[in-house]
Model the fold of this input.
Amino acid sequence: YVTSVLILSVVVVIGAFILYVKLKLAALSRGFGNKKFIAFLHPKCDDGAGGERVLWCAVDSLLKSNLAQNVKIVMYSRNQESSAQKVLDQVKNRFGLTFSTDDIKFVYVSTWRYAEPLLPRFTIIGQSLGSILMAFQCLYLFPTHVVIDSTGYSFTYPIFRLFGGCKMASYTHYPTVSSDMLSRVTSPIKSIYYKSFAYIYGFSGKFNNLTITNSTWTKNHIQKLWGGDVKVIYPPCDVSSLRELPLNFSSRYCNQQLVSVAQFRPEKDHAKQLKAFSLVKQKHSQTKSAQGPFKARLFLIGSCRKEDEERVKNLKDLAKTLGIEENVEWVINADRSELKRHMGEKLIGLHTMWCEHFGIGVVEMMAAGIVTIAHRTGGPKEDIIKHGDTGLLAETEEEYAEAIWSVLYDGDEQKWEEVAERGRQSTLRFSDEVFGEQFLKE
Done:
């Protein structure tokens, strides 16, 4: 009897919630001139990283399309509606995109923090369960007709579909769990944990009406887990302004400056760049044909969070230990103008992250006319660089050192200028305009 009452109570509560969502959606739609609502699930929409560039370029393309007259954009955000103008000002300053507060309805979702890593253990399952709570609050506060998840909260898809009756779409930057990750787990207990999570993750993904990923690498992993048809739309990169930088290749070739553009985070593997660069310096000192002193310089440019300050200190200590301290420059938290100045001067670009899902930094270096050496995995390998034609690919420290040496010292300036020019030309397919056209097409 008790069990029956409990089951009946749950059914009644679920039914009442679904009815509430439908009635509220109808009332809200009437209040906005019977427009259809398209919501973006992106609580940290005020951040300034690559994911936010994708978000705001998608919003921009919708508002400039023929759909704009019949739809209202909703932003599920950690920002109060009263701070909407401040967020839009940040978007303008960071990405050069202009919006009015009349264009977008900001909905403050207080439960977003429960989808953040709060637990010391079982982090991803804790975040996923927190995202379910967030989805219910979104439906309670402001139900919509369409939800586009651009942050990877796949556990919300069944909630929006079943309880909100929403059409569900996603733009996935990287899978929460992948076969590559599972293959590196050695603990039997962790293996069971991750495989169980992968099963639930795959089940949730099947509730998507439209799945878009940012690269072939991401597509292949998502397709294994979610099944169905998965599209690839490359993220919008700031290639137009970088392609305007003068090539001046002879000057770059003479100056022998290298650059790395990446946040100072562990997965970016700056240590590999330093070790490879030190191997180049060692080879130079042992090579009789090398003319004059070693004058190459490596510029490490990137933003640094407070929790990564110790990491930067350790990297500086490593450079000193390797004997390259005088050949390395550190440019921390540079603004966009300073970054562009550096990229307009450098000959070689380094990228060392294993299985980077795409590689916006790689594209930007190529667009700036830099001969780019990227990791032979993930997006750089599968989508961005054609080895030897538009750039170079490497994996080990020795391979990176060999690639750097060949550009600096093989004496064929024209060959590398042609590689830089072909690399620059190849970045046109990653522009804002191409992204907008493909996004609207889907």
The mean pLDDT is 93. The two ends are 50 Å apart (CA to CA). The chain is about 50% helix and 15% strand.
